[in-house]
Structures are given as C-alpha cells and as structure tokens.
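Appendix B, Record 12. Input sequence as logged:
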Amino acid sequence: MRPVTVHTVISAPREQIFDFVGDLKNAPAWIDHFAEDFRLARAKSGGLGAAARFRVDPPGPHVWVEISNSEFEPPRRIVQEGRWGRVGRSRSMTVWTFEQDAGATRVELSIWTEPGHKWDAIKEHLGARRFMRREAKIMLKRLRRVFEEAHKGELATADLAGYETAKAARFGDHPDLQGAG
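Logged structural output:
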C-alpha cells in the first residue's frame, strides 16, 4: 500500500510528545478508538525494542497487529515496524516525526504496509487505505487532545501480556514468604 501520511500541530514541547509516543504503554490513550486488546509484548514499554500487540477491526475480519520500536532518535523520529494479518505474514511500518515550530510541535505520522499474500493485497485494495487514513487522522486528533485538554481521571494505559498484578510478588510481604525463615 502506498504510504498514508497525516500531520497535526500540538501545543506542547517536542520532547514531551516524543517521550509519550515512544512509551507504548500510553498508546491506548489515543488509539483505543480502533485498537482493542492492546497488550505490551515486553516488560520494557518505551524506547528502542519496546513492543506491543493489539487487534484492529478494519472492513472485513479483525486483524492482529504486532509492532515494535525499531528506530528511536530522540526527540525527532520514531520508526515502528510491525507484522499483521494471518500468522503475521504482512509487514507494516509506521514513522513518527516531531518538529519544533515556535512553541508548538508538528507531528507527522506515515503508515505503509506490504501485503504478504495476494488475498491481503486484495483486502487492502478494497478499503484498507481509506480506513488507515481516517483512523490515523483520528489518532492524531486524540493525541493532540491528550496534551491540550484537561483530563477527567487518568489516561488509558496498557498492561504487560500475561502479567497479573494481583499475583505479583510484593517485596517484603508476599504471602508465601511470611513465616519462612
């Protein structure tokens, strides 16, 4: 698919936006309108090598997407490579660029995909490009709201896949360690 590129201007420092976008645990705050079951794939949620997995419901059947931060150039650019579709046979690339502009930051988002099979190419041709352009515009609009509008409560964040905080070890007061000694 040809690249889909959208941009917006956010009234916030470039470094602050870069850090927020680069930490994948924050992604549900601006992509939960089209992404479901968002989970971190690694304990490290930000920076180079951070990864996540989520489900997207484009026209047709839902698709699982896995992304990871493959290039990290603070505070200018983040490149996320991904796999999607049946058994991850199709590739995707997302490039975020952040440019400081007189007290505001211009954020540009480019997304493109490489179908791994003829059927995937047909599905893309039937509406995936329009879907991605629409969702990317909404994503940037929601990201701008995170920085420019007051929040009611906390922003949505992602958890580590398979990690249950209720069963996690507590330093010093884990029930299995009490009385041992």
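The two ends are 62 Å apart (CA to CA).
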